[in-house]
Design a protein that fits this description.
CATH class of the largest domain: Mainly Alpha
Distance between the termini: 45 Å
Radius of gyration: 24 Å
Shape: globular
CATH superfamily of the largest domain: Tetratricopeptide repeat domain
Number of domains: 3
Strand content: 5-15%
Number of strands: 7
CATH topology of the largest domain: Serine Threonine Protein Phosphatase 5, Tetratricopeptide repeat
Strand order of the largest sheet: 6-5-4-1-7
């Protein structure tokens, strides 16, 4: 029985190692094809890798492929996915802004309180994994500081240990809150991109509904209600909202 379990674990590790090797090899080929400016073939190869597991690098490379092909909607879609996985990456943000500048719609975000904007910026400073690891490190350091408070001989040393322990615990909690916020956004996937040249947003989930406004490819929307099979309610950063056909958008 034990021998069977060990063999199964060995097979699993071997499969994972083999899969990682194949992905690395395929990425090397895709990078080579991209360097030769065969963006159609490079995109196909990057898509095969993305099916195994999305990463910020692969999503970013796909965004670059579509940007070079002048397919702005798909470029924005993959840049957004890359930014979701690695929100603090300046190259991703720069290319995303470049792609957005080529869209037709100009959506001016609603004003938000300073604290809300500051919190969002802080959450997007690092990825969910980075926040989680930071929380772990801060918690371990808080335990070290607590031990200094408990076992420190001098009074000033105990005071320093206690103060550091409290500060580090609060920072660890904040790091975990940021990680949870990032994880929640990744799991919910409420953001979407308009993928058709133009899409009419309706007042009701029906083609007979009143026309509210028109969106063009590459515009980002937030899904509010996707319970219907063919329609979903969306909102824009400027507060506008309405119903759009699901086939016209793709979830980030």
């Amino acid at each position: 029985m034990k021998r069977t379990i060990v063999f199964t674990i060995y097979q699993l590790l071997f499969t994972i190692g083999l899969l990682a090797t194949n992905v690395d090899s395929l990425k090397a080929v895709a990078d080579s094809v991209y360097a030769k400016e065969d963006f159609d073939k490079a995109a196909q190869l990057y898509h095969r890798i993305a099916k195994v597991g999305e990463s910020a690098t692969i999503c970013y490379n796909l965004g670059n492929c579509y940007y070079r092909k002048d397919d702005i909607a798909k470029a924005i879609l993959w840049y957004e996915r890359a930014a979701m996985l690695s929100p603090g990456d300046e190259d991703i943000r720069f290319n995303l802004d470049m792609a957005r500048s080529k869209t037709i719609d100009r959506v001016v975000p609603q004003h938000e309180f300073f604290f809300v904007g500051w919190y969002k910026s802080m959450v997007n400073w690092m990825s969910v994994d980075a926040w989680a690891w930071l929380g772990i490190v801060l918690f371990v350091l808080s335990l070290v500081s607590l031990s200094i408070y408990i076992y420190g001989g001098a009074l000033w040393l105990r005071k320093v240990g206690f103060t550091l322990a409290v500060v580090l615990v609060l920072c660890a909690v904040l790091a975990n809150v940021c990680a949870a916020s990032q994880r929640g956004r990744m799991n919910e996937r409420r953001g979407a991109i308009v993928m058709v040249p133009s899409a009419v947003v309706k007042s009701t989930p029906s083609k007979s509904g009143s026309d509210l406004f028109v969106l063009h490819e590459g515009t980002a929307v937030k899904i509010k209600d996707d319970s219907l099979s063919e329609w979903c309610e969306v909102s824009l950063a400027d507060g506008k909202q309405g119903w759009i056909e699901k086939r016209m958008i793709e979830v980030i």
